[in-house]
């Protein structure tokens, strides 16, 4: 068998020079579960390996030629011999030079270039680097020419148990509900070991509990922590401190270990009912306390926390169930007792209530443990307070006729002091609600009287405030609104709803309705208005017009004949008497103005003035005045234009015959007579402008022209 293996290797490696590796027996024999180095090109080396294989009974293991092994953390006084490179071409004359290259060559691994021995110069740590890939080659020492192709091989660092397990995520925190059954899952921890998990048991971990028993247990291989004790009560102990150990080498002697802590907190469940701190509570309250005001607090304590400790309160029995109410304070979980209805010391002086507190959230697992509720008794004493007067009625509505006499009694209000002392009451009117002082009140008996006349048509309602004051304590005051309704009496006569003016066409026909009029009455009878219309007695036989009552309480005016003329009579006045149905009845006379107008054939009014007869057809007086004004304006414009033209044609140059030689200049000096011819210059007298050396020219027009006057 060895010879056959040698032949196979020789057939496989055809180079003339064969490199083989010799490994120290103590080195490659130590890790028997690893692949060993297979020497190449040497039958003796192969024989030695075969003998060792036969001794170790490893006949089924495959051998890999291109691997070397070295133990990590191995240290000694000298470098560690990892293996040896050798070729059959080396006769021992030192003509062959061995060269090593690759990972760590020259620093970590050094080769003896003569013998081919490879040494590890440093301590190796598999956790830092598990293997190194190197290349070996044999060259001629003199020429450095390669004697064979380079051969690549691997040096693997074999693991030793030099790393303790570590809990990377520790310390741990976990929770589990209180009262859980045995075996309830709590949490899972995980430890890691940097050693090789493939080699031996260096990374095989086993978990155990060092502290925390007998409450919890841990699975040795899965590291799952579970409860080991039933019915653990959070109210007794809430937090547990557990120490977990992880040990390698399968937990055997000599293994390394690491620990972590797990803080386990029991979460609350509703396993405790609420409990009142005392079975009887006493409270006192003044009878004048405001509605909704709290008068006391009760408290049911619950050993649970959070939602499990929330309780609701309810009044389940007592003589004040409709007088008081109880609510829950969301912050303190107290029961707050409040007043729902007014209290009266004189009516009832004390109340007894039975209050119940019950959990809101009940866990069905613990329902058999008993009712999650508790009861307590509350006694409330009502104390007397000085109360203001109380009116016999909360509101008053009084009625009075508008023609009621002054000082007549309209109505009466009453009030009393509810206190035991029963102080007398005095009444008054708040004058801010009766600025016109139309009413008075008797201070002793509360009778309201009329002070000034009333008019329903002016103000139908009066709202005043009555003030009741205790005579012994003026600070105790009550106020009450009183509404006074003024009732109607028939004191107003009906009249036309508006000023009517009727128009009658000259071409109208007999019986034609001229106008429909309506009437109004300020009074307000219960059965509504009903008016009667009539003409004055002296006009009952009016030859021109007649009246007709309509069903809708209006009146129609009709013409008796045709042929009305504006020239004959332009306006007619028709007095009409309007009466109501009151008791006593009231009436008034209103006059209707009827104007005669010219109308079209369709009955449309066109003109109602007499002047229309003298005007052209289709033109009114206003249109004629406008036309006349335009004509006058045109005439004025023409006259002005002609005048301006005339003045424009007059010459501006002074003619010779218009010379002003006749102008006389008067001096007060007395002349010398006819013989004095040298005293004055006759030329100056004839032309005064020449004095200053300026003589006007008459042959041209002047630059400055004056408008003729």
TrEMBL record:
Listed SMART domains: CA (SM00112)
- From the record, give the transmembrane residue ranges: 613-642
List residues of the Cadherin domain.
87-167, 168-276, 277-391, 392-496, 496-618
* Compartments, record wording: Cell membrane
> Which UniProt key words apply to this protein?
Calcium, Cell adhesion, Cell membrane, Cleavage on pair of basic residues, Glycoprotein, Membrane, Metal-binding, Repeat, Signal, Transmembrane, Transmembrane helix
Annotated organism of origin: Calypte anna
Q: What is this protein called?
A: Cadherin-8
A biological-process GO annotation: adherens junction organization
A single GO cellular-component term from the record reads: axon terminus
> Which GO MF terms does the UniProt record name?
beta-catenin binding; cadherin binding; calcium ion binding
Per the record, membrane topology reads: Single-pass type I membrane protein
Principal subcellular localisation of the protein:
membrane
Q: Top-down, what is the taxonomic lineage of the species of origin?
A: Eukaryota, Metazoa, Chordata, Craniata, Vertebrata
Q: Which top-rank group of organisms is this from?
A: Eukaryota
Q: Which InterPro entries match?
A: Cadherin, Cadherin-like_dom, Cadherin-like_sf, Cadherin_CS
PROSITE patterns given for it?
A: CADHERIN_1, CADHERIN_2
């Amino acid at each position: 068998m060895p010879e056959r293996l040698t032949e196979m290797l020789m057939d496989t490696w055809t180079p003339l020079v064969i490199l083989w590796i010799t490994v120290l027996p103590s080195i490659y024999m130590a890790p028997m579960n690893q692949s060993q180095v297979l020497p190449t090109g040497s039958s003796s080396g192969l024989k030695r390996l075969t003998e060792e294989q036969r001794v170790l009974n490893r006949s089924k293991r495959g051998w890999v030629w291109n691997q070397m092994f070295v133990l990590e953390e191995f240290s000694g006084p000298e470098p560690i011999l990892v293996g040896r490179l050798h070729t059959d071409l080396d006769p021992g004359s030192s003509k062959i030079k061995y060269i090593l290259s690759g990972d760590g060559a020259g620093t970590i691994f050094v080769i003896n270039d003569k013998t081919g021995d490879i040494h590890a110069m440093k301590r190796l740590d598999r956790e830092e680097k598990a293997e190194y890939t190197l290349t070996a080659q044999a060259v001629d020492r003199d020429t450095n020419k390669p004697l064979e192709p380079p051969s690549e091989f691997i040096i693997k660092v074999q693991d030793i148990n030099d790393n303790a397990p570590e809990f990377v995520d520790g310390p741990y925190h976990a929770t589990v509900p209180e009262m859980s059954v045995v075996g309830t899952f709590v949490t899972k921890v995980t430890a890691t070991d940097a050693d090789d998990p493939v080699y031996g048991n260096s990374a095989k971990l086993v978990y155990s509990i060092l502290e925390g028993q007998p409450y919890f247990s841990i699975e040795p291989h899965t590291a799952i922590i579970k409860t080991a004790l039933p019915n653990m009560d959070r109210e007794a102990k809430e937090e547990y401190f557990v120490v977990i150990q992880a040990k390698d080498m399968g937990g055997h002697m000599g293994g390394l270990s690491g620990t972590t802590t797990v803080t386990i907190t029991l979460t609350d469940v509703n396993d405790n009912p609420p409990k009142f701190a005392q079975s009887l509570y006493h409270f006192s309250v003044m009878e004048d306390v405001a509605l909704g005001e709290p008068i006391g607090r009760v408290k049911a304590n619950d050993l649970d926390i959070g939602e499990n400790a929330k309780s609701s309160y309810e009044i389940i029995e007592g003589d004040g169930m409709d007088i008081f109410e109880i609510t829950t304070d969301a912050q303190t979980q107290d029961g707050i007792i409040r007043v729902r209805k007014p209290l009266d010391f004189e009516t009832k002086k004390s109340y007894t209530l039975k209050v119940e507190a019950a959990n809101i959230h009940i866990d069905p697992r613990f329902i058999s443990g008993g009712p999650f509720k508790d009861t307590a008794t509350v006694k409330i004493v009502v104390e007397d307070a000085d109360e203001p007067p109380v009116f016999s009625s909360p509101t008053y509505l009084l009625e009075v006729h508008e023609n009621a006499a002054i000082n007549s009694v309209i109505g009466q209000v009453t009030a009393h002091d509810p206190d035991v002392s029963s102080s007398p009451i005095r009444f008054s009117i708040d004058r801010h609600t009766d600025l016109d002082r139309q009413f008075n009140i008797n201070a002793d008996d509360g009778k309201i009287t009329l002070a000034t006349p009333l008019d329903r048509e002016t103000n139908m309602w009066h709202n005043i405030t009555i003030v009741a004051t205790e005579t012994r304590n003026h600070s105790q005051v009550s106020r009450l609104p009183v509404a006074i309704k003024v009732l109607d009496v028939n004191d107003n006569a009906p009249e036309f709803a508006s000023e009517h003016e009727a128009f009658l066409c000259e071409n109208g026909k007999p019986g034609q309705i001229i106008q429909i009029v309506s009437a109004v009455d300020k009074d307000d009878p219960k059965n509504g208005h009903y008016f009667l219309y009539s003409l004055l007695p002296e006009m009952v036989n009016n030859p021109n017009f007649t009246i007709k009552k309509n069903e809708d309480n209006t009146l129609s005016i009709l013409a008796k004949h045709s042929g009305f003329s504006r020239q004959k009579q332009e306006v007619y006045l028709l007095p009409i008497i309007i009466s109501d149905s009151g008791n006593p009845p009231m009436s008034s006379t209103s006059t209707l103005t009827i104007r005669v107008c010219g109308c079209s054939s369709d009955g449309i009014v066109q003109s109602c003035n007499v002047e229309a007869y003298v005007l052209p057809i289709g033109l009114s007086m206003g249109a004629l005045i406008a036309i006349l004004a335009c004509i006058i304006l045109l005439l004025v414009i023409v006259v002005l234009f002609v005048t301006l033209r005339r003045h424009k044609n007059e010459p501006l140059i002074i003619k010779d015959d218009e010379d002003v030689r006749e102008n006389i200049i008067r001096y007060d000096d007395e002349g010398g007579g006819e013989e004095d011819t040298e005293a004055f210059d006759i030329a100056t007298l004839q032309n005064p402008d020449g004095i200053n050396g300026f003589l006007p020219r008459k042959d041209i027009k002047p630059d400055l022209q004056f408008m003729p006057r």
